[in-house]
Amino acid sequence: MTFVGKILVVLHLVLAVVFMGFAGAIYTAQVNWRTAKENTQKQLDVAKKELVEKSTALTQAADAAAKKEADLQQQVTQLTGEKNALTLRNTSLEAETARQKAFANSEQKIAALSTSEAEQRLLEAQLQRARNIELENSRNQLITANNKLSDEIFGAKVKLDALLAKHEESLREIATMKSFLASKDLPTDIKSMVVSTTPPPPVTGVVMDLRPARPGTSETVEISLGSDDGLTKGHELTIYRNDRYLGKIRLNFITPDRAVGEVVERTKNSTIQRGDNVTTRL
User: Fold this and answer.
1) Rounded CA Rg of the chain
2) Percent of the chain with pLDDT over 70
3) pTM score
């Protein structure tokens, strides 16, 4: 073998070793990418689930506070009506007492006309005095009951004000939570949150059509899967070609056998084409 031949053989061996090293590095990067993606997806699912639970709890607390507020408002209205009725009755009793006192005074003046009439009027006056005492006692009882109702109304209003403050605080927390979700491009209604935390079924399809991004719009992809396959708005699918990851789409339009999704992630220098594979399994 000539010297040049030996050099070529050595060069061939060196290049083979170099290419094997490149292949190993590419395989390692692919495995690490899949593991990192799965871990990130799990963390995102846990965070979404926590957001759903907190938002649901806040909504339930706000509904309970609103119901309690309505009950207390009804109680305040009822107690106010009772207080007004007692006040009216008290006024009536005071008028009756004044009338009876005037009548007693008049009867006393007439009793001075004769001794027999005086004795009779005295008896009537004593009876009227006893009745006046009874009326006075009834009036005092009504005043006590009226004061008690006033205290109960005040206590109910204090509870109502506290519930209103708590209700407003719950509404502010819900609004803040929805604003935070919107800033992260996440759904703000409970139904969409539940869908986003429910994993899609394991299905695989192909890219049927695509529309490039334009000013003010994102790149969209039409796929061969739809609601009949268990998919719904908000589900995310992975696009790949020959085991090569190309990107990810999030569905925003669903028909029974077709769906359109917005491209939310794409690998560098990759191109999505008709016939590329899409799946929920990765």
Assistant:
1) 43
2) 88
3) 0.38
